[in-house]
Design a protein that fits this description.
alpha/beta, 49% helix
């Protein structure tokens, strides 16, 4: 009976780990970038990274590549890219963005040139944010792109992404299964030729 309680406890703990969200926060302000990954009670600062002490560099041996035709190479790329793109679409559909903030002050001395640059940046930024909003579950966006005629540029960016671990696992499983199927199909096609 004790073994059953332990098994149930372990399964509940694993379920808790799978249902906890992974959170990624990226921020760019005052010419400094910061990226933080959070999971459960763990926090990892990805950017800026701590400087490592100088150590010995590992040398890698170059392996000779097998010669393949261009057609075979393109087919391999296609067979690899399709499952990856499908997995990325599936994964992005589960990503939640609670807040996306972009503030750009377009600087310049010439008013006409500054206005044209501001318009070009606005077109690119709003198109990109629209694409992100279409692919993910975006709750709130705060975008302002304004001309600043004193010649100083200023860019501030903040985004927070959240996804449950279960969706990452299912997307990766789908990609791996599709890659295995493609590899098996390639081997069958190669054996038939």
């Amino acid at each position: 009976m004790l073994g059953l309680y332990i098994l149930i406890g372990v399964l509940l703990f694993l379920l808790l780990l799978i249902l906890c969200p992974i959170s990624l926060t990226a921020e760019y302000k005052d010419e400094k970038a910061r990226v933080v990954l959070r999971y459960f009670f763990l926090r990892f600062v990805l950017v800026p990274q701590k400087e490592k002490k100088d150590g010995k560099e590992k040398k890698t041996k170059e392996k000779p590549d097998k010669e393949k035709s261009t057609k075979d190479t393109l087919q391999t790329l296609k067979d690899t890219a399709e499952p990856l793109l499908d997995g990325a679409k599936k994964l992005l559909s589960h990503v939640s963005i609670p807040l996306l903030r972009l503030h750009v002050a377009v600087g310049g001395d010439d008013a006409a040139k500054t206005a044209v640059e501001c318009g070009a940046i606005s077109a690119g930024a709003y198109t990109t944010v629209g694409l992100i909003a279409a692919l993910t579950k975006t709750r709130r966006t705060d975008i302002s792109i304004l001309p600043q005629y004193n010649g100083e540029w200023n860019v501030e960016f903040y985004i927070k992404l959240r996804i449950l671990v279960i969706f990452v696992i299912t997307s990766l499983n789908g990609v791996i299964i599709q890659l295995i199927r493609n590899t098996i199909n390639q081997k069958k096609d190669g054996a038939e030729k």
